[in-house]
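Subject: mismatched residue count in predicted assembly?

I count 795 residues in my input, but I want to confirm that the predicted structure covers every chain. Input:
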Amino acid sequence: MNTARATTAGHVEWLDAERQLSHAIFIAAGMRCAACAGSIEKAVAALPGVDNVTVNVATHRVNVQFDASRTRLERILAAVDQAGFRALPLAGGAAVAAQRDEKRAAIKRLGVAGLGMMQIMMFTFGLYAAGPNGIATNYEHYFKLIAMLITLPVLFYAGAPILRSAWQNLKMRSLGMDVPVSLALLLAFTASVYNTLRGTGEVYFDSVAMFVFFLLAGRFVEMNARHASLSASDALTQSLPETVARLTAAGATERVPVADIRPGDRLSIPKGAVIPVDATLLSASASIDQSLLSGESVAVNKTAGSELPGGAVNAGGVIQVAALSAIDASVLATIVRLLERAQRDRPPIARAADRVAGWFVLGILLLAVIVAGGWLLVDPSRAFSAVLAVLVVTCPCALSLATPVAMAAATTRLARDGVLVARADAIERLASIDLIVFDKTGTLTQGASAAVRVTDTHRVTADAALAIGAALERGSTHPIAQALLRHADAAVVATDIVETAGLGIEGVVAGCRYRLGRSEFVAALTATQRPGEQQPDYSSASIVLGDSDGWVAAFELTDPVRPAAAAAIAELRNSGLELAIASGDRPAAVQAVAQQLGITAAHGQLSPEQKIATVQTMRAGGRRVLMLGDGINDGPVLAAADVSCAMGQGSSIAQAAADLILVDDSLQGVGRAIKTARRARQVLRQNLTWALLYNVAAIPAAALGYVPPWLAAIGMSLSSLFVVLNAQRLTRR
Amino acid sequence: MNIVFVLVPLGLVLIAAAVWALFWAVNNGQFDEVDSGADAPFRDDADPAAAEDGSSKPRDSR
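Triage response: the counts match. Full output below for your records.
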């Protein structure tokens, strides 16, 4: 149908071939209420050539149809800007259009099935209500023919996805739940057509139509749940621009695809645009909005040399930045990849349900054969109706819906609470957590916002020492590096950088080899002990810089506890969870933080290997461990825990290893996530129990012929609907 | 009762019309976004002055 194309601004725009109108979708950031939506609609509708504009308050999406010969897209975006909102590009326009088309097709099918079902019921009611003598044969025959006529589009248009999926299942030699369903539909329809044409015998057109309608209704609800859980991460996954302005060496501007950005490229970011990759600010100052990344919509002021995460939005004037990474290594791309992986992953319990469903379907088919055999011996006239009832009533729809809808609802709820689920099965494991282990730096403390102070220098000035330190830490996302990077000097460049996790960094600056990190690590290079090391204040950490000639400088970092940490920790303890700290920092500093937060188990001075060993010992003792971390050290230990959670502002290595990501860095998200996971587990159990009980109870009744096919269709559908609605409770507060 | 043989096909024509209307509405995006209709009473009406000078544009069709 429509061919989408990306404009230079990255906004999705396509041509509606029928009406010769261009169509564009973008996100208007800053929208908070219905009145905002109204003012955007008014501003855009006032432009010449705009045919139609709709604004969705919930998803912040603006949908415009316009005559491209009279108004350019840029003009529309400018109008949105003038109205006080930022028009953000939406790179995943093709996905949006696909989702919209899927929903439209589903509504059409549902409508056809519903209208058809009601008509058929009307005619078959005439047959049922006629009493013992029946109605005149010519009317009866006529009504059946009409019902058959209406069943055709209901079964073969509205029911097409069910039949197609069953056919694909058979081609793949697997048994999905659509196989017995399609078998029942086609059997009932064929028998009814045969009976109609020969003029005697039962017809089941009403049951066929009703079954199709209720199946589609269940799937419609499930589709909406799925779309909702996708749109929760929409703004993030679809905010990447498709091209960016790069400055050439001569100072000219060229447009290049974001995929071509290389570290070191100088990029010009206009107001309101997304910074596509992690970058260092070259302009004197900038105001950026990280709401896409953290959900926190506050503009943050940055000065030259600060690092800007990919995915942040430039809220101020035009800025120039130097790319630090290629697009696939940026913070945003990492988060997008994690989300995509989570959406692909199927939780083990769901996979198990799929396997069970295969055997279940085989069982149903065997049972249908047995029931047919039994009734043929007892009363052949009732055999067909009993087999149909068995096939319909046993449809394991509720069973296979139970897990996906519960997980989709829980994921949506968690995303709303600021917790991204990177691995789908994490929700199940999270529900049984009883011990939480925290890393200290950057998790319980603020990390990135730590202040750095030069306490001691030797042979260089304090500023030069800071510049060397910053140059060495350039590629690192460790909290200490974040603090040092604020002192970066573009003229000081480090090469041959090697980072040793938990110890420090080695690199060459201006021909001289330096080490920066813990004193024992640096001592290996300097071959001398640093004289007169004083005991630093508890809330700070000290690292040293040295070259092969000896000590150069000592830095002290002050790293206060996160403001909301105490409340969040107290809440976690009150909900019966045990808490512990495992940190690489000095025991004194760890103890101080532990005391401040009231955590009794605090382990300090742990190497990454020791951290892993600590977590493994806890797990061997039967504990279910949730590990929270954020640094480059934390990747392996996160992977060693039952469930792992990384801070959204932490390193991408930690995020790649984590099951959950706290987007707004708020520890309160942990408590909420555990609560939601426990409720999700409860809902999942209710759903599975319900689905099994329903099937177990309904099968004997259907096999014994107590359930007419139409009642079987209603029962099956209500059971699926129950499962879906039960899961939806999770998204509510 | 023979009128049934005329009225039922007539009913089918009405159903076909209803299906056509539904398809038309779906294709024109009437069901794409059903959340914000509830907010409509709280939105400002189109500028009355603009309406008078005839320059107002068709607003969204919801």
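Residues 47-62 of chain B have pLDDT under 50 and may be disordered. Marking this ticket as 'not a bug'.
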